[in-house]
Give the backbone structure.
Amino acid sequence: MKVAKFGGSSVANATQIKKVANIIKSDPSRKVIVVSAPGKRFSGDVKMTDLLIDLCYAKQNNQDYELHLQKIMDRFQEIVDELELDHHILEDIHQTIQKYLYFDASPLAQLDALKSIGEDSSAKIVSAYLNRLSIDASYVNPKDAGIFVSNEPGQAQLLPQSFPIIYKLREREDVAVVPGFFGYTTENDLVTFSRGGSDITGAILAAGTKASLYENFTDVDSVFAVNPNFVENPKDISVLTYKEMRELSYAGFSVFHDEALIPAFREQIPVCIKNTNNPDAPGTMVVAERDVTNQCVVGIASDVGFCSLYVSKFLMNREIGFGRKLLNIFEDEGISFEHTPSGIDDMSVIFRDHQFTPEKEKVVIDRIRNELHVDTVSIHRDLAVVMIVGEGLENTIGVAAKATASFAKAGVNIDMINQGSSEVSMMFGIHAVDLEKAIQSLYKEFFTDDATNLKIPPVSVRGHK
Ligand code: ASP
């Protein structure tokens, strides 16, 4: 059996939901369906989840929320009417919203409850529409599906006891339509995953039911090798590994929620990213292993908003505990770091910029000066991270040479190189202003017809794989 997840664009309006129903109908092995909340119908549109968040804040700030409520109900009504469904669904949605608006709970718990209504209503609508088409399907609440989570509002984590219960979904005769994005604590409190978390639900259900395939339907035919905002018509990726996908999503590939693949990865469930608007296209497969012989680099990812803190101290290499003390300061100040390249007398800590308020910056710098007695400490903002990702990197000679040569050709200065800590990626820190030309140059080097390194030369393989 397969688990299929449909993202926000796939359930944004009635036309899209009809496509979803055809996809479900065309393959009876699609037994568990996970849906997002209605997403944007056109650029500039607002996602249902954001409308629900606005509604919640209006209520919590004692503002008039009627207009927000109206917008939400109008969108659902448009969908329900176009699908010619009974209006009792709308009454049900309205009642659920009212219940949560007058919910006796903390503001965060109320926010999670209201946020969940987008997915919850999508699932009710999709299952009712499938029934209209004479497909045996039911709405299955995440609690009944067995999704039990920790009580961390907006950041729920799955509790391991969920898996045996989820497995029982296999026993169902009908198609189970489960809302994505939320679960319940063992105390019966509704808690959502982080934003974009319907992907997490899909991966959890695929892992829990030990599905033969997890299909993730979105609005692109496949994953591109590079961000199409930088390169026109970039190449598609037909197959990549979980590790490659994880590294690519970390550095800006927004196809998947960062954490989403972990449950599928642990159970080794193959994932296929497909297009609701073109379901016959083969899509991109994400699997445990792939043949790297004809393509060692699978994609180039990049992300901005990084900051680097550089410290130097003569004889740092002999000072036992220096790195720990430095990172302790970051820990104490609640800053999570991303990378820590180091030299003999120098160390840099790379982290996401948004965590570093001017007050935090002052505290961190003062503490480093006073507690670690460094020679220099400096901050570099507006950094971008570029990652070249591919399982073949580890065993291929010359990838770094080609990458650095392509940076040089584009006139881009490299601030930092990190290779070796990950087997599947090579990371470069550059100035954000140089990002576009750096990516274009790398793409040309690795992916265009005259790219020379797509094949691993026999001499380069070290032989232990
Ligand atoms: N609807 C939620 C969001 O917009 C979750 C999702 O779509 O995956 O973040």
